[in-house]
Amino acid sequence: TKITSAVFVAALMVVPFTLLLPTDGWAAREQMIITTRKKEENLLDVPISVSAISDIEIEQKGINDIKSVAKYSPGIEFDEGYGGQDNRIVIRGMSPTRGRSNAAFMVDGIDFTGEALTTAGAAFSINQRLLDVERIEVVKGPQSALYGRSAFAGAIQYITKNPNLENWEGDVLADLSSEEQYTVTGAVGGPIGDGFGLRLNAMAYDEAGFYDSVLTGGEVGGGDGTGLALTGLWEATDTLRIKARLAYSEDNYQPRAQARVASNTIVDLEPASLTGTPAFPIVAFGISGNYPDCNPFPSSPATTLASCANTPKILTTGTVSNIDGLGVAQAANPATGGEYPGTEVDMLTFTMNIDWETRAGTWSSDTGLSNQDGKQLFDGTWDSMLAGDYTSLDGSWSFTRPPCGPTGTENCSPIGQQIDFQNDTDLFSQEFRFASNFDGPVNFTAGVLYWDEKAEQREASMTVSPSFFRLTPGAPGPPPANLSAPTAASVFVDGNGNGLNNIPRVKSRETEHWSIYGLIDWDINDAWKLTLEGRYVDEEITNIAGECLPGPTAELTGLAGVDANTCSSSFRGGSSMAQASGGTLPDGTYTNAVTGPLEAKSTDSFFTPKGTVEWRPSDTRMWYASIAQAEKPGGISSIAGGTFFEPENSRFDSEQLLAYELGGKTSWADGAVVVNGALFFQDYTDKQVGVTQFDPRIGSDVSSIENAGEAEIFGIELDASWEINEHWFVSAAYTWIDAEYTKFESLTGSSGEVARTQVAGNGGCLELIDVDPGPGFSNVCRVSRKGNKVEDIPENAFIGYAKWNTQIGGGDMNLFVDTNVIFNDDRFIEENNIKKLDSYWLVDLRIGVVSNNWEVVLFADNVLDDDTPKSGVDVGSQVETFKQAQWPPGPTDGLIVSLPDPRIIGIRARYRFGSQ
After folding, report:
1. What is d(CA 260, CA 897) in angstroms, rounded to the nearest whole number?
2. Which residues pair with 811 in a beta bridge?
3. In DSSP terms, which residues pair with 226 in a beta bridge?
4. What whole-number distance in Å separates Cα of residue 876 and Cα of residue 439?
5. What φ, ψ does residue 229 adopt, rounded to 5°?
6. What is the DSSP annotation of 321-335?
7. Alpha-carbon distance 281 to 292, whole Å?
8. Is the dihedral of CA 489, 493, 495, 498 positive or negative?
9. Is residue 73 part of a domain?
């Protein structure tokens, strides 16, 4: 079986370490102290799968954000999605397709995990640059009891540096690379009075993008920013310690270097999946005709399968192995003709940790506040259309797009989407905790947490999406030789270069969380220990967004005489739809629906327990078994852009997880060799997944959230390290994960969704259901993805590390050479299993000289210049829909991938002064 094979591979990895062990080991490297369980413990004494990255590793490897943390952590994936706020962390196969992040992001014990509005992802907070970090702790598996509201699958925690209370010290670090990138950091700190010290850290970086736009020649994928942090530490008495930290950063990111993969698969839907009419009349661009066998526009967005029988669905399928033929072809900013500005984020955070030790135990208070201001302006199609000849994938439709500018490189697409978000997020967290320190066999920890986040988004996004159809052969008005629809840019910007008078839409979400938690440790005897822990959660989420106001909308748009239901004939945002797509607005016309705020609430309360048994047969062996229950709250979806707020159709329930784990931590040869491992099984139910429905108001497929998935996840984790002698150190970490949907059925009115399940081999429309037996069409399809692999997860992941060092220069300097070898297996990036990113190998190399107060490191990242995309997201293209003349006129199936970093060669230099 797969599990047997994985165990065998893991055993093979351990054998070399155990067979080569010397009788008398050399002195082991100092073990790291971590605070994973809210108290200081040796890394090897914690019955949890946890790893730590030291400040030396952070500096020498150039780890500067969550993406690079994931790079050096097998079993953890980081994906870039739809815009700067869509960042996703996958731990142990727990993919956050929709809903909040499955992994907690913490700084000094405080949860700063956010959730994006309008898109998926964990917002900006998890992607902040590292600033004066002492170590990074990576915890795998559910840790709800101690890590709180977001640690459904695990957690990543930054522990920041403390001031030196004895002597003044400081350092300066510069990182320069061959790709016109630099980072400079500096820190200084020391005692100010008895028991009080300060530490000031500053950082500036400028990273040129590795890629240029094929349309504008502008740079994409880069960024720059600055940061400042001031930390104070006051040891008021021998038992009272207060640490406070204030940090501010400004980051500017160019549009991401993401490229759209071309459509390559034609799918003819099974006739039984459709209920058609003899003909659907089309009038577009002065041409009249009939488009046969089309469903009429439905009366409800969730209750009709919309398509035409003779128009194939166009999909993107297969494995993306490299970037050959891929280019960044995002549309230019119509206001400037250059690249969109991308993303700007200003972030202010404050943390305070108070610890008061008494005879009975330690009382603690952890306080956190943050404010994030984010602005995003980027192309929402990741696609464009130059002047030229176009032929549909099936070869039955072609047209010519005439030039729209003097250079021939202008974007002549009549389809366009400009994403314009302005976000403001305020977060407050307060935790009180007591950890006993009794002399007896029983100790406990108890605490209470209040956490509140207020997020508001002002959206001024605009969409123009006329559609053109394959008219009936021989019908009046054959297709023109030159398709002369207006460009999207000409709709977005008037003749004077001014933007259209768009009415911003405002939505907000407040998450208010209360929880109490406790942990009891019972040392049964010298070898056995039982730990019971749990957290009770009470959470309320309040969403406010726009509902359509029919009266004011009719007055503004003049649509009342056209359609009594003005909200069905206008659009939530800035939209322009041709008559051909079923709208009532002429080509190039722009309008807004008038909306008013609608409030809706979602509440959740639950208890998440965990139990752990430890067995320590000796001081160098520890084995443990645990069982944990975790839950991720439900809510009201804010993802479906382009539609009005309909909370009752947007609610989803919580996810549940039951996790079993067997693990061990061992050291050999007097601590020179360390071998750790874990075997886990996770029963994942009510997974929050994205589904696609047809919305008649905008004539397009839209995204929503349903609890459709159940999955079983098996996994093995193994890591081993060996300090061979004073010159050599090697380590390896391996993860095997098998994650499969055991149940995944949903009802959909999207013909595209049916096509994806059909080409995946899951049968397409398994049953056509008439959900409303009254007059009119109300058919939906039942589709299944049972047996598919859970998305975003490589089955095998491996990281190897080797370091050689020796003293030079009379013993006051060390020369070292080290390398990382990284392997990630291929992985599906969506739940239908029709799109996959290929496996890849990465090799990094460093050579450096280190002395007591300075070091210089030459580095080469991605030595082999691997060009396999490491991240991708399933996002359709309305431009592709137009090229294929596909129905319905919303985004067709699609895939965008983040173009990988090429080989980077550079130098890192650091100088320390004062007491170190």
Report:
1. 7
2. none
3. 204, 250
4. 62
5. -140, 135
6. -S-TT--B-PPP-TT
7. 8
8. negative
9. yes
* Entry field: residues in the chain: 916
| Burial degree of 238 (CB within 10 A; 0-12, 13-18, 19+) | exposed
For residues 539, 540, 546, 551, the Cα torsion angle rounded to the nearest 10 degrees is 150
- Quote the CA–CA distance of 66 and 56 in Å, as a whole number: 17
328 close to 258: Cβ distance less than 8 angstroms: yes
Residues 893 and 752: beta-carbon distance below 8 Å: yes
Q: C-alpha 9: how far from its chain's center?
A: 30
- Residue range of the domain that includes 819: 2-269+285-323+344-401+424-475+483-491+516-549+594-863+888-914
* Burial classification of residue 234, based on how many CB atoms lie within 10 Å of its CB (0-12 exposed, 13-18 middle, 19 or more buried): buried
Tokens read off for 189: 């700190």
State the Cα–Cα distance between residues 792 and 89, nearest whole angstrom. 10
CATH at residue 149: 2.40.170.20
Tokens 């009005």: give the residue.
644
Residue 637 CA, distance from chain mean position: 17
Determine which helix (DSSP H) or strand (DSSP E) holds 71, and give its type and residue range.
Answer: helix 66-71
| CA-based nearest residue to 679, from 657, 659, 660, 662 | 662
Is 330 part of any domain? Answer: no
Q: What is the mean pLDDT of each run of 10 residues along the chain (916 residues)?
A: 46 40 37 73 85 88 88 85 78 77 89 81 71 89 82 90 95 91 95 95 93 89 94 96 97 92 83 47 41 42 46 86 91 85 94 97 97 91 86 79 83 84 94 95 96 91 65 42 64 58 79 96 96 96 84 64 51 38 37 75 94 95 96 79 69 90 94 95 86 52 71 95 96 96 84 86 82 57 90 94 92 92 95 95 97 94 96 85 68 88 95 83
Query: Does residue 211 lie within any of the structural domains?
Result: yes
Contact 140, 92 (CB under 8 A): yes
**What is the rounded CA–CA span in Å between residue 880 and residue 891?**
8
d(CA 791, CA 81): 14
Angle at 455 between CA 367 and CA 597, to 5 degrees: 140
Q: Does residue 562 lie in a domain region?
A: no
∠ CA 94-98-102, rounded to 5° = 35
- The tally of domains found in the chain comes to 1
